[in-house]
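Table 4 source record.
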Amino acid sequence: MMNGAVPFEGERVGLFHYRVTAEGWQRLLRQNARMMTFLAFWADEEWATALFLLEGEQPLLLSTAVEQGHYQAVSPHFPAAQWGERIARDLWGVEAWSALDDSPAVDDGSWSLTAPLSSRPLPVGEGGGQPLPGCRIEPSRTSVPGLLGVDYVLADGVMQQVEVQIAAGHRGVLSRLIGLTPEEAMPLVGRISAGGFVSHPLAFLRALEQAESRRVDPKERDRRLILLEVERMGLHLFDLARTAHHAGAGLVASLCDHAREHLASLCAGHGLSRRLTGSIRLGGSGVEAMIPFARAVIQEMSPRLEQIRPLARLFDGRLKGLATVPTEMAWDHALGGVTGRASGRYLDMRYMDEGVRPQAMGGAGRHEGDAWARNRQRLAEIEESLRLLDCMTADHGQESEWQPLPRTDEGLGVAEGARGDVWYHVVLKEGRLASVQIRDPVLPLLAVLGTVLEGHEPEQLDLALASLGLSPAGAAL
């Protein structure tokens, strides 16, 4: 069988999903490590699954059976898989042979059950589980919006051997989603991460629509695209403000905060929630009100962006060379969003969206990979979002080609959020969620975070984390 440029033998079980033998799994990983872009890994008691991108941004899901609680690790070939392997071990109790790292990821030692999502979870013995090692900076003390522990060795005044922990933020989201109807699941999905009040439910909804072979009305499609761009602008302003604050640029931070609050007021004034929570719904709503809303955003935000841009240049020197992500690292770990595009990985899943306006996109992309490049990238993408809104108000609801697909009750959905591509894989059974897997763009970032932070002074940590737009909530599910 040939899929894109990658040859393999397997059983097709979904639109982009194939199952291979253990031997085929190892052979494929070994022979095609440079022909596929790794995106995500997850496993349960039955199947280990990896998500890849092939040429043309075509997704590929590969699964192999978990045999007697074991499978061959992906991380020796794709190091970004190690977080998925660790999470699967904590939640399901399945072990990855030859894994790069088998330490706990979300089990902080306080759980009453081991492998709580497995069919046979075991109670933890008297005295509790093994607690995680302490961190120099406890999870509640870092400046990120969420719980992230940071540990390091101080050598010659700089951080070395940097490690991060997300276990303190684990909420048991996956266990709560399984068995729900899509209607019951949507409120929970919509609040998984403050970095994706639109992108998470949109990716989930697209996965459901693919599973059920449902087409979205073009006006509702454009409504969602408008909301996605408005969220992008708001989150970029948030990250710009935090970066400026930690860099000591108080005026720029204040301007970005005020612009974001004004954007929130525009949302509220047009019948939406301030941060767009609950704006993506099954069936859609409020299509008619989107054109006035989009026009108001363009009119009100354009002059504010022009005010911020020249002032942001005044503290460029404090950002250059900080928390640099090399281009090779961005590609090897499929870093998305601003972090990836500021490092030379010019990949944007919006180009794959039905109804995309490519004439308003492009031109936004840097290669330096540092905090300065990320700031410039955010400003460029806010301007790009305004152009997209302008295009969508001009031809709102324009028809596009659509090819009906057979219903499979399995779907893969993606939405390009402000911080990268969010993916959902869902399996339906009798109208309920039999399986849900989530790939938030913070997962590959966690895999390289220690390396990116090494060599910096501890006093630079808050600025580095703010510049990276890190929010661990999307991983600590």
